[in-house]
Amino acid sequence: MTSRETSNAPLDIVALGEPMIEFNQQDPARALDYRLGFGGDTSNFAVSAARQGARVGYITRVGRDAFGEMLLALWREEGVDASGVAVDDSASTGIYFVTHSSAGHAFTYYRAGSAASRMRPADVPVELIERAKYLHVSGISQAISASACDAVSHAIERARAAGVKVSYDPNLRLKVWDLPRAKAVICATAAMSDHFLPSLDDVRTLSGLTDPGAIYDWCLALGAKAVTLKIGPDGVITGDRAKRQRISGNRVNCVDATGAGDCFDGAFVARLAAGDSIFEAARYANAAAALTTTGYTAIAPIPRPAAVRELLARAS
């Protein structure tokens, strides 16, 4: 049995996907030193967009458990419309652990059979999507189960039919699905996207290419109307077939890159919804993503506009 709240408020953005509870290692020398936080790429996206001032809704399922209640409380606190969130009596909310080492950060997931993985096309509240300017989805949401993948496809179809723009981050996770299926689904979804938002490492794996310029051309050739390629500390390449621009990274004291790409996506689409050009939105989101690496966990360090504007002013 599931339950869902209702709402009729207009929205700038609706995200669909899988929220999770995060346990983030604070000190690699202390095996049990973890901080509880929130994660899940599309939930991180929703909070990031909301903190930039966008009206954001979220579509997912959580378990009727303590972690599900914590996520619902998070979205209420952040001003994210949770009328698209169903509470599942028979499945749990997913969790993951982040560990840190000299090689970077690594993830360990406990999400099999989670409430979010049970999403089906019939569970998607399409009226929520049809009231928005943008729908945001991710490859992780497609990877967690066949029914969730179908739900993402259904949401995209309804969005396109209603004239709602689609942003898509492939967020490749080969622990969740194999590369041939991932590549087939991601390439097909990119072709239906208005904004394709991959990371350099993801597309290197998908395309077999190494040069960022060649990778960008490969992304455009998939059929996306516009591409914003995130290249980590080196910034982003953004644009469309007519024009592209490389935006340099911002120097900050990076301690944890968890969720930086999600923060970028949320800030980027929020600024697009507010009327910025793709280049203005990418420059803003680039600064927001840099700032979120200066603190631990995916959600807590996501900045507000004043901090982003301050960093942009220092960089200019």
Question: How is this structure best described in words?
Answer:
The protein contains 11 helices and 14 strands. By secondary structure, the protein is an alpha/beta fold. It has a single domain (2-315), classed as Ribokinase (UDP-N-acetylmuramoyl-L-alanine:D-glutamate ligase, 3-Layer(aba) Sandwich), CATH 3.40.1190.20. It has a 10-stranded mixed beta sheet, sandwiched between helices. The chain has a 4-stranded mixed beta sheet with strand order 4-3-7-8. A hairpin with a 3-residue loop joins strand 13 and strand 14. The longest helix has 16 residues, at 146-161. The chain is globular, with a radius of gyration of 18 Å. The relative contact order is 0.15. The mean pLDDT is 93.
Annotated CATH architecture: 3-Layer(aba) Sandwich
Binned strand content: 15-25%
Name of the CATH first level: Alpha Beta
Oligomer: single chain
Tell me the name of the CATH homologous superfamily: Ribokinase
Low-confidence stretches: none
> How would a textbook summarize the main sheet?
10 strands, mixed
Number of E-type strands: 14
Write out the strand line-up for the largest beta sheet, numbering strands in chain order: 1-6-5-2-9-10-11-12-13-14
Spell out the helices and strands N to C: EEEEHEHEEEHEHHEHEHHEEEHHH
How does the helix and strand content classify structurally? alpha/beta
Number of domains: 1
**Which percent range fits the helix content?**
25-40%
Number of helices: 11
CATH topology: UDP-N-acetylmuramoyl-L-alanine:D-glutamate ligase
CA radius of gyration: 18 Å
Distance between the termini: 54 Å
